[in-house]
Every structure is written in structure tokens, then in C-alpha cells.
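Review the following:
>
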Amino acid sequence: MGRVDAFAVLAEPTRREILDLLRSSDRNVGQLVAAIGLAQPALSKHLRVLREAGFVSCRIAAQQRIYRIEERPLRALDGWIAPYRLLWTRHLDALERHLDDQEEQEGQ
């Protein structure tokens, strides 16, 4: 698949829903189909995209494919987002200080 744009992969709501389900436990395709309510061929296409992008892995147990979430690509996204989270935290802290100052001025 070459270089993958993680944001493009995760822009699809069904793929995010799959990841949300796999966050709590590994699941087979049948369990994912039942939980999401999508036809198996359509769900399999989403799983393939997630697998090729590294967000999920698959193992075979008996006749079932069991999918699990892979943390590494999510950690990479979190690393990219971290500076923006810090930026917002600073802005929110400044807003909180401003509101506290306003409240103190009104109380005098």
C-alpha cells in the first residue's frame, strides 16, 4: 500500500467504530459484523484497509480470523497531536486565569 495517510484511514466512521470495538477486546469478523451491522464483505474491506495501515492485526484461530488493535500507529498519531494538545491546554489555562481574575474583580 506504500505510505499510508493515517488520517485518511481514520476519516472513515466505520473504521473508527471497528477500532472502538477492538479497544476493549479482540474480536472475530462475525462479532464485528454483528456489532456494527454491516455486511461481511463490506466490513472485510474496512478491516483490510486497517490491517494494511497497521492499525489492526489478524491471527487465525481454528476457522476464524481474530482481529486486534495495534498501538504503534495510534501512538504515532498521539505524538503528532501532542503539541496541539499542549497548545490548547495553555490556552485553556490562560482562559481559566482570566475568568478567575474577572471573578475577583467583580467580588471587590
